[in-house]
Design a protein that fits this description.
With 698 residues, this protein is an alpha+beta fold. Among the domains are: 140 residues, no CATH class; 188 residues, no CATH class. The protein has 26 helices and 19 strands. Strands 3, 8, 9, 10, 11 and 12 form a six-stranded antiparallel β-sheet that branches. Strand 9 and strand 10 form a beta hairpin. Helix 16 crosses helix 18, helix 19 packs antiparallel against helix 20 and helix 22 packs antiparallel against helix 23. It is globular. It starts with 17 loop residues before the first strand and ends with a helix. 46% of the residues are buried.
Length: 698
């Protein structure tokens, strides 16, 4: 038999431990992957605070022109070596790098072992010479019954809070199942891998995840997690925009006195209007349920743009969560603060009156009020943050009782540190073993009095209160698919998705298909597709972008569910043309081709997949079944099943197929052993129970 594992569309998110259920066609459903927050940094983000007499809010920065390119941090270093030397020690500068001993912050003493009690796998990180390796193994008593060794390519995280680990094989980037939590000096499963959701070595690292923890990696066209190049760390141009024109003009001798005028050849975030400056920080410092605008990617945002030009970011709202925060919520929490609200109101009024039209950023509290991104927070020190507070709350703590009413003893315990009382460090609700500064400035609530109420209210768009109905509908679809598998969120999504008039239907078509697909209403998916297209069944659907490719895939799978293999193949092909390196698409296409009787074409698809990713378990099992059933090559099939089980010893269909091969060989004891393993994983498997009856009879 072949396997058709559930296809997952996993993206980074703010919550761990959320099952991802796509409702896709599956004879054998694999363990669902969870959504996670892959990477976590407390990085503070700003630039110099020089002023300008000639700022024009509507001016266009050269870095926003389409012809301007990225030059790399080493180019910036040539003129800004002093800034470079301090920046590379910041959380952003140390955010991503090769897995070397120097990069790692982890403690390897004592031969640390992490055990996943849900999946019964154990993990040991170790150095093999200068190569970081993760061992995955399983014990039965004192015997090691399974071992898998995988090399680590990259370490994510500055080490201030965590080190997470990535694998890069043939260009494909995957998260690995171990994270080092620096504050507690503890190895453990990464966020989203806990509680039975361990996806082991198969979690894709797509643009949404990597785009806030790196520069601009070069994604292979037609892929979602295959990269031709991956730089090290967040570089200068993530904050300042592409610098080719800036470099060319400076080399030509065009110099600007930035104390008198803005240099529009490059973005200085400190000189941006308040909302634009906040959007720049919010690009990465509000992480949640992101809904891209049509035709946009996570790399389309550039400094000097509005975030709403590229995406809307949603967060769930709960009663009783005011005292809790997630890891990447710095901007959101700051904007909840009275300090921000009052200063922003004052700045807006000043701008309208013309008083601050040229420099509104000087009037309001923003990220740059407290943080210099070119200097590590560890090197900044509390005096700098106290000084930022005193800029508005004039006087000193020692002489002004009106500023601080806390008892002297309490202030002494906090070293008269404003942040210690008003922005205390707390545990993050999405990342285990991590405490970080809560940027909601207030009189903090004592931990004992925190509310335990957790009542879901809604999903709110953080950066765009005026988000349109389609965006809101897609936010609920995301929430259902990636975080909480509750049909109520599908119902909420549908209230925003109009399918009445042709114009509305055309606008919402892809979201409507996704809605019906997640409901597993395949007939409705097909009706939507038929309404959208006037093409005959034999005509190739027209697909031009990633989301359209996913829509075509969902339509294809719906046709396959309904037994229309000809249409299924056409729509699968359309999806594969746009995303040829989305190997799960090809796996589904191969299955449809096989069912259609086109075994030679199916064989080519499986060979393509395994040439790209020799570890693709589902393709190994499916290809083995094809070779055994259509080409009478049971020995080759058997080798493929062994390769699959070397990656996943609990893969039920591989175990069942090994059972069948063993019966063909006449090795009944081996057949019973494989069958026992399969039924231990899935006791109610119908195929397995039928095989058990057959073997019992023998």
């Amino acid at each position: 038999m072949k396997t058709d594992d559930t296809l997952t569309n996993i993206r980074c998110s703010w919550y761990a431990n959320r099952p991802n259920l796509n409702g896709s066609f599956s004879r054998i459903r694999s363990v669902a992957s969870a959504i996670f927050t892959l990477f976590f940094l407390l990085i503070e983000f700003s630039c110099s605070d020089s002023t300008s007499r000639t700022e024009e809010i509507g001016s266009v920065y050269a870095s926003l022109d389409t012809g301007v390119t990225y030059v790399g941090m080493n180019t910036c270093k040539q003129c800004h070596s002093d800034i470079y030397e301090t920046y590379i020690r910041t959380g952003m500068g140390k955010s991503f790098g090769n897995a070397t001993r120097e990069k790692s912050s982890a403690d390897f003493s004592g031969s640390p072992v992490v055990h996943d009690r849900f999946r019964n796998f154990s993990y040991r990180p170790r150095w093999s010479n200068d190569q970081l390796v993760f061992d995955e193994f399983r014990m039965s008593g004192s015997d090691t019954v399974y071992v898998r060794r995988e090399p680590v390519a990259f370490i994510v995280g500055s080490g201030q809070h965590t080190n997470s680990h990535l694998q890069w094989l043939n260009g494909y980037l995957w998260q690995m199942p171990l994270t080092y939590y620096t504050q507690e000096k503890k190895w453990d499963l990464p966020p989203g891998f806990e509680n039975g959701q361990n996806s082991r070595f198969s979690r894709k690292i797509e643009l949404e995840c990597i785009s806030c923890h790196n520069g601009y990696p070069q994604l292979v066209t037609g892929s979602e997690n295959k990269y031709a190049m991956i730089p090290s760390g967040i570089d200068c141009e993530r904050c300042h925009g592409p610098g080719s024109r800036h470099v060319r003009l400076k080399q030509a001798g065009e110099l600007i006195d930035t104390s008198m005028a803005i240099d529009y050849s490059i973005v200085n975030p400190a000189k941006l209007p308040i909302d634009f400056q906040l959007d720049l920080c919010q690009r990465c410092h509000i992480q949640g349920n992101s809904v891209l605008k049509r035709g946009k990617s996570f790399f389309d945002f550039k400094p000097g743009m509005r975030l709403t030009d590229v995406m809307d970011v949603y967060m769930p709202v709960y009663k009783g969560q005011e005292e809790e925060h997630i890891m990447a919520s710095h901007a959101e929490r700051m904007k909840m603060s009275k300090c921000f609200v009052v200063s922003k109101s004052r700045a807006d009024a000043a701008t309208k009156s013309g008083v601050a039209a040229l420099r509104p950023y000087k009037q309001a509290m923003t990220c740059v009020t407290c943080h210099n991104p070119h200097v590590s927070v560890k090197e900044t020190g509390p005096d700098s943050y106290n000084a930022a507070c005193k800029n508005c709350h004039s006087g000193t703590v020692e002489v002004s009782s009106s500023l601080c009413t806390a008892p002297t003893e309490k202030r002494r315990l906090r070293n008269d540190n404003c942040v210690g009382c008003h922005m205390p460090k707390n545990n993050t609700i999405d990342i285990p073993h991590v405490t970080t500064t809560d940027h909601y400035i207030r009189l903090a609530v004592d931990g004992k009095t925190k509310s335990a109420i957790k009542e879901f209210v809604t999903i709110a768009c953080i950066n765009n209160p005026g988000a349109d109905r389609l965006s809101r509908g897609e936010a609920f679809l995301n929430y259902y698919e990636k975080f909480v598998h509750d049909v109520r969120y599908l119902d909420s999504a549908k209230t925003y998705l109009d399918e009445g008039e042709e114009e509305d239907f055309a606008t919402n078509y892809e979201a409507l298909v996704r809605w019906a697909y997640l409901r597993q209403d395949y007939s409705q998916v097909v009706r939507y597709a038929a309404r959208k297209s006037t093409l005959s069944i034999s005509t190739m659907p027209k697909v031009s972008n990633r989301e359209a490719a996913w829509t075509s895939y969902r339509v294809a799978e719906s046709y396959q569910q309904l037994g229309n293999l000809k249409s299924a193949v056409a729509f699968y092909n359309a999806a594969v043309i746009v995303l040829p390196y989305q190997l799960d698409f090809r796996n589904k296409l191969a299955g449809a081709l096989e069912e259609s009787g086109n075994t030679n074409a199916a064989r080519k698809e499986y060979e393509f997949i395994l040439n790209e990713d020799q570890r693709h378990v589902s393709a190994l099992v499916n290809y083995g079944y094809l070779l055994a059933s259509a080409f009478n090559l049971p020995q080759e099939a058997d080798r493929l099943y062994d390769r699959a089980l070397a990656q996943d010893p609990d893969h039920v269909q591989a175990l069942l197929n090994k059972t069948g091969i063993s019966v063909l060989k006449g090795d009944i004891p081996a057949a019973k052993r494989y069958l026992e393993r399969a039924l231990k994983v899935d006791p109610n498997n119908r195929q397995g129970l039928a095989m058990k009856s057959m073997l019992t009879a023998r």
